[in-house]
Amino acid sequence: MSAARLPLIIDCDPGIDDAVMLMMAFLSPRLDVRAITTVAGNVPLRLTSRNARMICERMGRGDVPVYAGCPRPMTQKAVTAEDFHGMTGISGIEVFEPKAPLAKGHAVNALIDLLSAPPPGGYTVIISGPMTNLAAALVMAPHIASGIRELVVMGGADTAGGNITPTAEFNIYADPIAANIVFDANIPTVVLALDATHQVRAAPPRVARIRALPGANAALMADLLDAANALETRWRPGLWVPMHDPSTTGWILAPHLFETKPCRITVTTRPGKDFGRTRIKDTAKGPHRWVTKADDDGFFALIEDLLMGRA
Ligand code: BDR
Ligand code: CA
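Above: inputs. Below: predicted complex with beta-D-ribofuranose.
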């Protein structure tokens, strides 16, 4: 195992694709998952918190602390996505009560504590749900921005159009005020929006290749992806599930699979047809990077390598 493992905090709302993302992070010997924080998103907080702990347990990582965070967005009513994740939030696996309880304390406090005392070089932070937790932490303790080496966000849409309205993507739409607070914090941020994730879809032959690999992890991932595909095609006939959240770990482990452009991102918070839309302004230096291209074959090869212990 490499000595230079990347210290990682994952803020998520599992969510089938969040679960696949968590699996990828646990499978990589290069990543050191220090904490998971959960937020209300795809399903209510109680379920996202249980689902995160279920994946930890199935991956033999019940030692990783899971902190429950904000049970609702900053100012609006919660929006959920059971249509695409099932009523449990994690269709495809049998639900159970994990042995490890939630870690003590609120996720926002945990983020503040961790990011106030970062390891040398700082933390890499993934956000794969509404950005409420980090936004609240930044409001309470703005200094924590400097504890983040790189923020990797799944959210937003530009050329691809939205998936919850014609212009808005779910994670941003679910809490646009939080997204604006986070984007305004000048943290070096890479954004995997629908423009990128729609290029990487789990077509059935790809899931079959994963299922054919030896081991319980491959079977678990294939079960999740089959379930996600069944839901996706029910609502969007002819389309296979995009690897939204898994693209974040893909970026961290294999950035050469992606192309980016520097920009500054803002979010429309005014009520109306563009509510929750991400606006991209090209800039020379960022602080954000918008992913424009993703290598889907390379991404699925990475998943196979992770499952086979080759990555
Ligand atoms: C995002 O929305 C959620 O349903 C998924 O988990 C992903 O984070 C995609 O728009
Ligand atoms: Ca998610």
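The mean pLDDT is 97.
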